[in-house]
Amino acid sequence: MNGSPLDEVAGYYGGRLREHGATPQGVDWNGAESQFTRFRQLLKVLERDGPGSINDLGCGYGALLDEFDRIAPGQAYAGFDLVPAMVQEATARHGARPRTRFAVGAAPDAPADYGVASGIFNVRLDSSDESWWEVIVGALDSLHATSLRGFAFNCLTSYSDRPLMKPHLYYADPMRVFDHCKRRYSHQVALLHDYGLYEFTVIVRQDVHR
């Protein structure tokens, strides 16, 4: 790889957006139904402590904001993405919403009550498993540091059917991810692997005494 892993991934997603526009396929998902299913799992992080502000890391064109608005109307939202064109699309779609902003970046630039990340750990391209794991850990550290109540993220699962697995994608071991979050971030961690997709969602609720 000529650039950093994140530079390469940004180029990949920029290409998807140019090819498919502001659609689920433009952020490398199969369709709107599975995308909505993912959003519902991620936003379960809000259920226990109630609505609050949110950072959306890897926001794409801002698709999660529609579901967030339904669950937490009027709450502050900030979206961050590596791809400037994604941020432009998101701003064009949602920039008029009050208490909303989008920015180019690999990490939130300010704390929020919650943080979410959907799909940002899937595309590893030429990175080795261990080097991509370090990218994931860095992003989770950022989410932990900037999420006051909790954060949620998803990963493709290593329990996927092997003939269907693609070499440019990263399939995480759910047990490794859970153990990492439990030991490093909080005593309160949930692993959701029961919603019909070849992936899992992890919800980390911040300990009361951090």
UniProtKB/TrEMBL annotation:
Keyword Hydrolase among UniProt keywords: no
Superkingdom of origin: Bacteria
Pfam families reported in the protein's UniProt record: Methyltransf_25 (PF13649)
InterPro entries assigned to the protein according to its UniProt record, in alphabetical order: Methyltransf_25, SAM-dependent_MTases_sf
Domain Methyltransferase residues, every copy: 56-121
Keyword flag Transferase: yes
Example of a GO biological process term: methylation
GO molecular function list: methyltransferase activity
Keywords from the named record: Methyltransferase, Transferase
Name of the molecule in the record: Class I SAM-dependent methyltransferase
